[in-house]
Design goal:
- The complex is a heterodimer of chains A (about 150) and B (about 425).
- Chain A is mainly α and about 150 residues long.
- Chain A contains four helices and no strands.
- The N and C termini of chain A lie close together (about 10 Å).
- Chain B has about 425 residues and is α/β, with parallel strands linked by helices.
- Chain B is built from 16 helices and ten strands.
- In chain B, the strands form two sheets. In chain B, strands 1-2-4-3-7-8-9-10 form an eight-stranded mixed sheet, sandwiched between helices. Chain B has a two-stranded parallel sheet with strand order 5-6.
- The termini of chain B are far apart.
- Classes of the chains: A mainly alpha (about 150), B alpha/beta (about 425).
- Chains A and B meet through helix 1, helix 2, helix 3 and helix 4 of A and helix 3, helix 8 and helix 9 of B.
């Protein structure tokens, strides 16, 4: 992969993450079925693919012997662990909602917090990682493109 | 500095260990997905993984990348590529329950078409279908859920006391301000599962579904019945101290009688909840589905004379993963739940087998069954379907592909989404 292709993928990833976050806010605000939610479904999957691709590209092209590269690599590690924790939060949210007979302010707050960690957190972190990649793109030695 | 390096190394080892354990679990889950597995492995992997498989796909994709990052490709290339292949394989296989959703939907469509005619949707007016789910499966709902439906709830109403037990129910009612809802105050009696020895109304009986149906105009009674303390292999199921008020030396006949007592209670108190008893459905999960079958199919059977209220008109029976094979279920798991043996007391053993109670007067049936259920094998549901067909009873059997037992416990999941879509339509078509 060329440096230019990586950069273009970063822009695509930023676009999908922003789109997914916007859709997610709209979904929470208007919880009635709309054809847009089918599009949101596709956007969700595309965003995860874009974020995983960024992670894999970081893995392949980061120069971990370099200080900057090492730093970015640690961010990738944290992101991966965060995705697992966030997904477990989504599971918890689903089970919590399933078992709630009388929703209270407390239970709804918990639900929103779990969605914030599980959906918004993942995409915001994805945005953050992509921005970091772009900011450090011209750093000498941080990358090993052909 | 050295201390930090050691901490980092320990963290990496722990992370690696966690990743390998996760991948091992993934391999076992794949084994169950592909082969159906046995009861032991299936209990963990068929009952848990498919329910949230879409989320497990994310976890396994991430775990695979993490494991690869933690593996030195130059030093251990074989391990690196093995992990890569295994990770891709597991992630791919875990997609199957979600990818099979269109097949599940097509199967449900065929079942409804054969039960209600190919144009069955035209029997639901447009002004009613706006209240229903518009698609059987929606990806954002899978990951983010939907807000809880608005309804009135009354918890812990006592309906029966005898000896040392007291039985309660919760009721979910439509908001009185909303008129013309599809349910029109039809009654749903919801019976929880738990292997006849455990389980409860409320949390353990998917209240989100009760809320959903109440918001559609149904009055849902989520009821308790006496749990048995008779010994059997189901003894290993956990029980809570707060269930002591309903545990006793009960058999299946007692449990059916308890549900019957509720029907008599509600005959007197229906007006307090606005429940229309002329249009009543019985719904139950697992052991509750077995009781649903016995009560629903045997409602007018002379064997159960005096058990149930005569003021209730059943319009539909909804057993969800129902045990039907009495001999297999009770002789192995809870031998003393039916008195005698099939040889010494054949009548009792026959009358507590739902499929044997079906007759031409049985109301329409909707069954929900996982293809990979290790506890209640699909042939149990097929028995009920066959008996229904033989007696000319409308019966739709919705097979949930790759699903184990209790796959509706993740209410926003693909299985429960599909189930609710067809359940609300079944209720409307038969109410």
């Amino acid at each position: 992969m060329t440096k230019r292709a990586f950069k273009n993928w970063c822009f695509f990833s930023i676009f999908t993450n922003l789109l997914a976050i916007s859709f997610a806010i709209a979904y929470l605000a208007i919880p009635i079925y709309n054809i847009a939610w089918d599009i949101f479904g596709v956007v969700l999957i595309l965003t995860w693919i874009a974020d995983f691709a960024i992670i894999l590209m970081n893995e392949k092209y980061l120069n971990k012997a370099d200080d900057k590269g090492k730093h970015l690599n640690r961010v990738v590690y944290i992101y991966l662990v965060y995705i697992i924790v966030a997904t477990l939060c989504l599971m918890g949210k689903g089970l919590f909602t399933t078992g709630t007979a009388v929703p209270s302010t407390f239970s709804q707050t918990i639900s929103y917090i779990l969605i914030a960690i599980g959906i918004f957190g993942v995409f915001l972190f994805g945005l953050f990682l992509t921005f970091l990649d772009l900011i450090n793109f011209e750093e000498r030695g941080a990358w090993k493109f052909e | 500095m050295r201390g930090n390096l050691n901490k980092l190394r320990i963290l990496k080892i722990l992370l690696k260990l966690d990743c390998y354990v996760t991948l091992l679990c993934g391999i076992l889950a794949c084994y169950v997905y592909i082969t159906g597995g046995d009861r032991l492995i299936g209990t963990i992997f068929a009952n848990v993984y498919p329910v949230v498989s879409g989320l497990f796909v994310l976890i396994y994709a991430t775990t695979t990348i993490l494991t690869l990052k933690l593996t030195d490709k130059s030093k251990k290339p074989k391990l690196y590529y093995s992990v890569m292949l295994i990770g891709i394989f597991i992630t791919g296989i875990l997609c199957l329950p979600v990818f099979a959703t269109p097949i599940t939907i097509q199967n449900a469509e065929n079942e409804f078409a054969s039960a209600y005619g190919t144009n069955w949707r035209s029997q639901i007016p447009d002004d009613i279908s706006v209240y229903f789910k518009q698609t059987p499966f929606n990806i954002p709902e899978y990951f983010m859920g939907t807000p809880s439906k608005d309804c009135d709830v009354v918890l812990d109403v006592l309906f029966h006391e005898e000896d040392n037990i007291s039985l309660y129910f919760d009721v979910y009612m439509p908001k009185s301000s909303v008129l013309d809802l599809p349910g029109q105050y039809s009654t749903i009696i919801n019976i929880h599962g738990g292997g006849w020895v455990t389980g409860d109304k409320g949390f353990a009986n998917i209240p989100s579904v009760s809320r959903y149906l109440a918001a559609q105009g149904y009055v849902v009674f989520d009821i308790q019945y006496g749990l048995t303390n008779k010994s059997g292999i189901l003894d290993m199921f956990p029980t809570m101290p707060e269930w002591n008020h309903k545990i006793g030396d009960f058999n299946i006949s007692d449990q059916v009688r308890h549900i019957g007592i509720f029907t008599k209670y509600i005959e007197i108190h229906a007006h307090e909840y606005g429940a229309n008893l002329n249009s009543t459905f019985i719904l139950g999960r697992s052991a509750g589905a077995h009781l649903t079958g016995v009560v629903g199919f045997g409602y007018n059977d002379p064997y159960f004379a005096d058990y149930f209220s005569e003021e209730i008109t059943l319009k539909g029976i909804i057993p969800i993963y129902p045990p039907d094979d009495t001999e297999e279920t009770f002789q192995i798991a809870l031998p003393s739940m039916i008195s005698g043996t099939p040889e010494t007391n054949p009548l009792a053993w026959e009358k507590f087998q739902p499929s044997k109670l079906i007759n031409s007067a049985t109301p329409p049936v909707l069954i929900f069954q996982g293809t990979h259920d290790p506890w209640v094998l699909p042939r149990n549901s097929e028995n009920i379907k066959t008996a229904s067909n033989n007696n000319g009873v409308i019966c739709s059997l919705l097979f949930m592909h790759f699903s184990g037992h209790g796959s509706d416990y993740f209410s926003q999941g693909n299985y429960n989404q599909v189930f609710l879509y067809y359940l609300e339509r079944f209720l409307y078509l038969n109410r």
